[in-house]
Structure formats: structure tokens, C-alpha cells
Amino acid sequence: MSWEQWVLVALAGAIVLAMLVGAVLLAVRLVRARRLLGALDTSGKVAFWGALAYTVFPVDVLPDPIYLDDIGVLAAALLYFGRLAQQRRAADRRLPGRPTTPTEPPRRPIP
After folding, report:
1. Rounded CA separation 86/72 (Å)
2. How many domains does the chain have?
3. Residues of the domain holding 51
4. What pTM was computed for the model?
5. Which residue of 25, 74, 93, 100 has the fewest C-beta atoms within 10 A of its own C-beta?
6. pLDDT tens digits, 43-94
């Protein structure tokens, strides 16, 4: 093998390693996000389970050896899920003495 081929092999290995590290980090965040699932509304649950189903099922936008679409869907769902959790925490940290709106019942704190 020539040095050009070795460079291409090394570059392909680095890309595969970066994708693997990204997938592992997303999987860890997904497991951590699962704990907050019970405290959120339906849209958060749909985003979580929809992203997980898209990742697991074999029907993909891109072929399976390329996991960029799976990683992108998971990352987008986790970002959305994180924003919902932040909004929920902010709503739970209301100032003392500030009444809740009449249409919104008081919320239980997130465990």
C-alpha cells in the first residue's frame, strides 16, 4: 500500500471513531434524559420515543453504515427535550407570593 492509501485509511478510521464517540455520548445523554420523562408533557415523550424508534428501526434516510441521520435525530430530540426540562424547572421556580395563572394548576416539583 502506498502512503496515500494509508492516509485515506487513517482518515476513514478517524471519522468512524468520531462517529462512535458521538453515538456513545448521545446514548449516555439519552439514558439520563429517560429519568426526566415522567415529569414532562406529551410532546416531550413523543420526541423521546420517536427519536429512539427512528434510531432502532431499520428504515433510514441514509443507508445504515452511515449513522449521521440517526445521530442527528437523537441530538435534535435531546435538545428539544432539554429545553422542555428547562422550561419546566423555570416554571417550578416561581417567585414566592406570585400566583399561578387561573388556567394552570400548581405543579408538583420534579423529583
Report:
1. 21
2. 1
3. 22-92
4. 0.55
5. 93
6. 778 888 888 888 777 777 666 666 777 778 888 888 888 888 788 777 777 6
